[in-house]
Every structure is written in structure tokens, then in C-alpha cells.
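Researcher: Go.
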Amino acid sequence: MGNHHRKDAGVATAARGNAEGPVAVAPREEVLQPEKTVTVLAISPHEEDHLFLASIFSHTNWRLRAAHSWRDALALIARQRIPILVCERDLLDATWKEVLAELSTMPERPILIVASRLADESFWAEVLNLGAYDVLMKPFDATEVFRVVSLAWLNWKNDRDRERLLRNSVLTPGYARAAGL
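Model: Structure:
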């Protein structure tokens, strides 16, 4: 599923999946990956999700952290900067909606991507309307995972850059909004 509010042009993939798992593909220059290592947190009670995502990110500048519950995830988020969360739709100790609500109270809010085997158009619309970034269908497709996570990271980074520019600027917030900053 794609997110309607972002630009996808020029996205290349670093890994492709097949029946035997992800296969490495040499990244092209326009691949949307960070220049330095950036952490993605996978929150899922299913170890196979963590293993598959780790195999996708092993060929990139992404570092995958894994949590089996929302409680474990909160402990990781408290200790380090994590811009992207890939969260199972229903965890043992929380739903994606509860995760999203708690993330909204954080000063440097990570972007939430919801993973689900059951994802129709109405679920996708609900996820976007409530403020999560996108939905990843399970079983995961390596190309789609890399594309969605890359674009989510760019979105997160652009938000941080815009906030830093506004903090360091002499522009009034009203003028900055009018200028599209």
C-alpha cells in the first residue's frame, strides 16, 4: 500500500524478496538511505519479522532494533533516538492506536509504520487519518519495506531540519508558515 501524501519518484531498492527470502541488489545512487547509521525499531511478537527485516537492512545504513512488546519498545526509545517504528497491528500489550497515542506525547516523535496481514483500503485509510505514516502488508516484501522506511526517514529528517531552521531563524512563525517552511 502506498501513502498518498509523499513523493515516491526516484526510489530505488537495496533488497528484493523472493520465495527464499531477500536477495541483495546493489543500491543505486538515488537510494533513499541515510548518510549515517539510523535506527529502525521493529515491534513484533514474531521473531520471523525481526529476522526478515534484519536481512533487508543488513545491506544498508539502517540498524534494526527489535522489541517483542510495546513495553520493551518504550525502554529502547527512552535510551536512544529512534526515528522510525515498524509496529505490528496488534501487540500483546498494546494496539497500534495505543502506540500512536503514546508516541504523540513524545518530544521527538518517531514515525509509525503499521505492519499487518489484514490490511484493506479502510484499514489503510484509518491508519493515515489517525496519523501513522503507512501500512506494510505481511508477509513483508523487501522492496516495499525499503521504499516505505526510506521515505518515512526522509519525512522525519525533513521535519527535524524544518524545526531546526525555525528555531535558529529570525523569521516569525507566521511568516515561516506563509513561506512554506
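Model: Confidence is low (pLDDT under 50) at residues 2-20, 22-31.
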